[in-house]
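Continued from yesterday's entry.
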Amino acid sequence: MRCEHVVNRLTEYQLGMLDEAESAEIAAHLETCADCRAELQALERLDALVAPAEQVKAPDDLWDGVEPRLRPRRGSWWRIWLASPRPALALAAAMLLAAAGLWLGLRGPVGRSSAEVLASDYQQQQIVAQWSQPLADDAALGMMFAGLNGVGEER
């Protein structure tokens, strides 16, 4: 048997609360282990110190005088939250936000004309094209300048 197990069970051993088999194992261990014997002797000295203390029984009506003076404990945060009007307010706010989002979503982009939307779509397409074909814009720009300057025209 290991000392760790014996030390954890010494109080029960001292008070005679163990079954016979375990009590016999601990007694055998105590014969061979000086450290565990010293621990048992310390428990016995402590018991001898406490034994003369007067054992007082609490009055039967003690709890009746203590209970009304106890402050109620706060419950968990979610029980307190559910007991307050906050859940109803939170639900109302969520429904209001959902309704506003749905209304705005059905109206389309706010304050933008269809030309602005098309220009925005064109810009997005140009960004994608520039990313996948970096020289495409330069070639288009060169063709535009060539057309403005009259390069390539016959005179």
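--- second protein ---
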Amino acid sequence: MIKIGLTGGIGSGKTIISEVFKRLSIPVFNADNEAKIILNTDNEVIQEVKNNFGDIYNEQGINRTKLASIIFNDKSALDKMNALIHPKVLESFYSWLNKQSNALYVIKEAAILFESSAYKELDFTINVHASELIRINRVIKRDNTTIEKVKSRMKNQLSDDERIKLADFTIYNDGNKMILPQILEIHNKILNSKK
């Protein structure tokens, strides 16, 4: 099974690109959503989070605002959280992967694919790119947040240039190029790599 990583900076439009691949009947595993589920349902993880970061849970589950204020302002806290979550997400990914035997290929969407070294387990990587200004504006609108908070999250991700260098393919999602032809070109290249 060919495994493709899909990544991009915050606000680049990874989810929109994933939706297009789903329309092409390509299964997509969203690592970030899976991490949220694990943070709220895995008792071992919940206990570890409480031990390391205090009780940042409420009746709805983990308080994401409190968590973000801790991990996006302290590199060691972010590293600790990633070390706790990534093995669990990887386990879920492989369990999900075993159920995708009829797929042409699969996609793993993850914000920190390169930063976490998760890309090393994949066959190809796709980076979704948009300028920093576009991304900041999208996230401010989407999350109803401030420019400072968006920038503090961005500084924990690779730069656009680094992601472009590391990725096998880059989709430009900045409004200047149509995304569908870019996706179809990559889709065909991946299918041809199987031959």
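The chain has a mean pLDDT of 93. Strands lie at 3-8, 28-30, 57-58, 61-62, 106-109, 124-129, 169-172. Will compare against the first tomorrow.
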